[in-house]
Specification:
The complex is a heterodimer.
Chain A lengths: L3 H8 L2 E2 L1 H7 L5 H6 L14 H8 L16 H14 L7 H9 L5 H14 L10 E7 L3 E4 L4 E4 L2 H7 L14 H14 L2 H10 L14 E2 L4 E4 L9 H6 L3 E4 L2 H19 L29 H6 L1 E7 L5 E3 L2 H16 L15 E2 L3 H7 L17 E5 L1 H4 L3 E2 L17 H19 L5 E4 L2 E2 L2 E7 L4 H15 L3 H6 L1 H19 L3 H4 E8 L4 E2 L2 H6 L6 H9 L1
Parallel strand pairs in A: 5-12
Antiparallel strand pairs in A: 1-16, 2-8, 3-4, 4-14, 6-11, 7-13, 8-15, 9-13, 10-11, 15-16, 16-17
Helix pairs in contact in A: 2-12, 5-6, 6-17, 7-14, 14-15, 14-17, 18-20
Chain B lengths: L17 H5 L9 H18 L15 H15 L2 H15 L4 H9 L12 H7 L7 H34 L8 H26 L10 H17 L3 H12 L29 H32 L4 H7 L5
Helix pairs in contact in B: 2-7, 2-8, 3-7, 4-6, 4-7, 7-11, 8-9, 8-11, 9-11, 10-11
The chains are: A alpha+beta, B mainly alpha.
């Protein structure tokens, strides 16, 4: 239940991001202690979200274009200072420094220090009790139900059935959708919640079956294989397609960071983080009656495609990932790959396939529901998580490519490169823990409060200029111009502009959140926005109304 | 004093066999874990309550409270796929439907397997032989609130089943008197019959030949739920309450049933120190049946979208009915 301040805010027809950031946290002491202050500094707007997030930590961690932690001494020093400061370790620590420099797995006692710290940073069910959480959502994922006057956020699997389009993440196969769905469900039963979280967080960074452009490279890393003979393997990104999990965050982290990370890029470039069009061209049957404000692909119309959902946390529909367990898992994988007498310069493609299955990994990666029972719960086939080094038989692993130095450019990937890759992922976890991205909704979610993102018309021309600049920087030929000096300088100018706006807080004037519907009585406040959300159309109702 | 009897031979253990349980039905995979979970709990209760058929120690599933909670997370996440699986299954059936004579005979026997017998919806796929004649958008337009409701009721049933398991394993269940155990056994058996109805309701398919008139069967299940709730052992609840309100002295040795060779059947269900648990236990059964009845009502509503439902039954699914 909202408290009086929240209640008051929810009565406003318009919400500002600053209000969400500053005033939307309840009086629960556990949560006010744990909720993060919003980070103000923002950087490298067109880089990956990881780099963007990392920049806000006073540029403590720097990643190169390939997403790899930069090896230079300066970067190492700043990262070391930040990491040791965060861990409250005075002086130095050789083992942690070595991990940071080479990716060599941490020993148990050091691992414990980081785990303890991460556990302290992680939200708990108690701290989120009776608290609002937010999510930025594209209108495509929403459906309104007329019978009960409620808006639902559909699951990724449902989205796939609603817009059946070829998905580049799926292997081309004649397999029925039912089979794919079942395979994905069964696979989820064979892996622990910790690994499910890792898959949701890193997706194709844990490996994908998709071929690389270079025939000598592979994008595979972990393969999920069934012990049943003839069963096809799955890669983590395939597994994620039907995953019912979606990210949410607490209001301060959302309004201070997450919103900006997802919204501005989509607004200016017209493509979201996953390269999907922000404005979908309507089909003939859904041809809009009225012309959207400023034209179909106008910046105002792009903004209006996005909605902010505010729901109250409950432990039945939302899950919290444990960063400490995730970190421990990455370290255990690194120890497994780097241990057992393997030298750092061992070439990956010469190593026999490794099944992740020593005692520590079994506890972390596989479910452990009935230890005293001879059978696994639900009789699902046991799964193996495998690192298919030998089977893949390609000299270079694209995921660890960023760690090949200039000299090693065309040389095969070694164990040391993979360890550095795993260190990067572990560093990412530390960064994400600061953004409290660990809340995930499971399945279909009814939206309790729904707001539509609108651009302030006074500032639209400024943003239109940025869009123009971006268009110029991309030019006709994307590949050539984007890499050109002029193109990247223009993109930097856009970054500067947005960063300053966020820093000076006047971003509040740029966007507003218009209340669409919500509340105990599921009131519709903005009829126009309400009608813009796709309706669950019942063919029966249509037929009945035509008869009348 | 009666002569000591030779211990009866323990019957051999039988694994849970879902195929046998499903008979003619085509299983929706997402419900499989929930059925398994229910079976484990059902067997554990029967074992602890002294059912002769479930004496083998393997019938008691050993799980910690955390593990039960973990299960529920997996199971409830799977239930999210119910509407998708239901849709994909029926689309497949619709594509397999054809107008041959033999097919029509089969359709009379098992109408839900043959969407050509529907009054709309999947029938469009059969008529036009096009998968998108009834696409997912249209399907959820028709059914989304129903599946949301069913999902939430199933999640509540899972939670209540977890509580039952907790009561029988974690709290002093052994201190329930034989009367209490018999009572529990009786209710567990009744619940099993109702759960079979739930299986049919969630799949919207018949399980046996005699269930071909699916609607009739679902209505009778709903009535059965009412009967269960109406005949709930209020006497024991009241009696137990009296035990709680008035402090009772410790049971003297001569009256303590556990110190006797022959168990004395007290007219009370449980001894004072497990009284609270017993009430919770009864309450949980009641709660399961309430949710179960709700699922049946929702599934009749789902049925009414695609099949003719006589007016006398429509009152069962009217929103004003309490």
């Amino acid at each position: 239940m909202p408290n009086s301040i929240q209640e008051d805010l929810l009565q406003h027809p318009v919400l500002h991001l600053s209000e969400l950031r500053e005033n939307f946290v309840g009086k629960n002491s556990a949560c006010s202690k744990r909720y993060k202050k919003a980070c103000r500094k923002w950087g490298d707007y067109f880089q990956s979200p990881v780099n963007k997030a990392a920049q806000t930590l006073e540029s403590a961690f720097n990643f190169n274009e390939a997403g790899a932690f930069m090896d230079g001494d300066t970067n190492f020093e700043t990262a070391k200072v930040a990491l040791l400061g965060w861990l409250e370790i005075k002086g130095g620590d050789d083992l942690i420094e070595e991990w940071l420099r080479t990716g060599r797995p941490l020993p148990t006692e050091k691992l414990d220090i980081i785990r303890r710290r991460l556990r302290y940073e992680t939200l708990t069910n108690d701290s989120l009790y009776d608290q609002p959480i937010c999510r930025l959502v594209h209108g495509d994922q929403l459906r309104r139900d007329l019978d009960y006057r409620v808006v639902y956020q559909v699951t990724p699997g449902q989205s796939k059935l609603l817009n059946p389009q070829p998905d580049s993440r799926e292997r081309p196969s004649a397999e029925l959708p039912t089979k794919k769905l079942n395979r994905s469900q069964k696979t989820y039963w064979g892996i622990s919640e910790t690994f499910q979280s890792l898959v949701a967080m890193f997706d194709s960074d844990l490996g994908t079956w998709r071929p690389s452009k270079d025939p000598n490279e592979t994008k595979e890393f972990i393969r999920v294989t069934s012990e049943k003979p003839g069963a096809a393997p799955l890669t983590p990104d395939e597994l994620n397609i039907y995953s019912p999990l979606r990210f949410w965050s607490p209001p301060p982290a959302f309004a201070g960071s997450v919103f900006h990370m997802l919204f501005w890029r989509a607004l200016i470039t017209g493509k979201d983080l996953f390269g999907r069009d922000v404005v979908k061209v309507p089909t003939e049957e859904e041809n809009p009656v009225k012309e959207p404000i400023g034209g179909l692909n106008s910046i105002a119309n792009r903004a209006r495609q996005y909605y902010v959902v505010i729901n109250w946390f409950n432990a039945a529909k939302f899950r919290l990932a444990a960063y400490d367990r995730l970190f421990e898992t990455l370290m255990a994988i690194a120890s497994f790959v780097g241990g057992n007498g393997r030298r750092p310069d061992s070439v990956l493609c010469e190593i026999k396939d490794l099944v992740l299955g020593d005692q520590t990994l079994t506890d972390l990666l596989y479910p452990n529901y009935i230890p005293h029972h001879s059978k696994k719960f639900g009789e699902f086939e046991p799964l193996n998580l495998k690192l298919p080094f030998k089977t893949v038989d390609k000299p270079i692993w694209e995921l660890a490519r960023g760690h090949h130095s200039e000299k090693e450019r065309d040389k095969p990937t070694q164990v040391s490169h993979l360890l550095k890759f795993l260190r990067d992922k572990a560093l990412e976890l530390i960064i994400w823990s600061k953004y409290q991205m660990e809340i995930r909704s499971v399945g279909l979610i009814p939206c309790q409060y729904l707001y539509r993102v609108e651009l302030n018309p006074d500032y639209a021309p400024v943003l239109q200029d940025l869009v123009q600049k971006y268009g110029d920087s991309m030019g006709g030929d994307v590949a050539d111009t984007a890499n050109s000096l002029e193109g990247s300088q223009q993109q930097l100018q856009i970054n500067d502009y947005i960063i300053k706006a966020i820093e000076k807080k006047n971003i509040n004037d740029w966007v507003i959140l218009n209340r669409v519907c919500g509340g105990t009585n599921r009131t519709v406040f903005d009829q126009e926005a309400w009608h813009d959300i796709k309706c669950l159309k019942s063919p029966r109702a249509a037929a009945a109304s035509s008869r009348i | 004093m009666r002569a000591a009897q030779a211990p009866a031979e323990i019957r051999p253990y039988k694994e849970i066999d879902l195929d046998e349980m499903f008979k003619d039905m085509e299983l929706l995979q997402c419900l499989r874990p929930m059925i398994w979970y229910y079976q484990c709990i059902n067997r554990s209760i029967r074992h602890l309550a002294g059912d002769k058929n479930f004496e083998h120690e393997k019938y008691l599933t050993k799980m910690s409270v955390d593990q039960v909670r973990d299960f529920r997370r997996y199971i409830n996440a799977d239930l999210e796929h119910l509407s998708m699986e239901f849709y994909l299954q029926r689309v497949q059936w619709a594509l397999e439907c054809n107008g041959e004579k033999k097919h029509l005979e089969e359709a009379v026997e098992n109408p839900s397997r043959h969407p050509c017998k529907m009054k709309g919806g999947f029938k469009e796929i059969v008529t036009l032989q096009k998968e998108d004649a009834y696409n997912y958008e249209q399907f959820i337009g028709d059914t989304l609130p129903i599946f949301v409701a069913i999902h939430n009721h199933l999640a509540s049933i899972n939670r209540a089943l977890g509580n039952l398991y907790y009561y029988v394993t974690e709290v002093p269940f052994s201190t329930f008197t034989p009367t209490g155990k018999t009572e529990i056994l009786h209710m567990t058996k009744e619940l099993e019959r109702l759960m079979n109805g739930l299986l049919v309701a969630t799949h919207l398919q018949r399980r046996y030949d005699w269930q071909s008139d699916l609607l009739n069967y679902l209505v009778s299940c709903s009535t059965d739920c009412f009967r269960f709730l109406d005949t709930f052992p209020h006497y024991y609840q009241n009696h137990r309450m009296r035990l709680v309100i008035f402090p009772i002295d410790e049971v003297p040795d001569k009256d303590n049933p556990y110190l006797k060779d022959e168990l004395h059947s007290f007219p009370l269900t449980c001894v004072p120190w497990s009284a609270g648990t017993y009430l919770d236990f009864l309450d949980t059964y009641q709660s399961i049946v309430h949710h179960l009845r709700a699922v049946i009502v929702w599934s009749i509503r789902l049925f009414s979208i695609w099949y003719f439902v006589p007016r006398r039954y429509l009152r069962l699914i009217a929103p004003t009915r309490h």
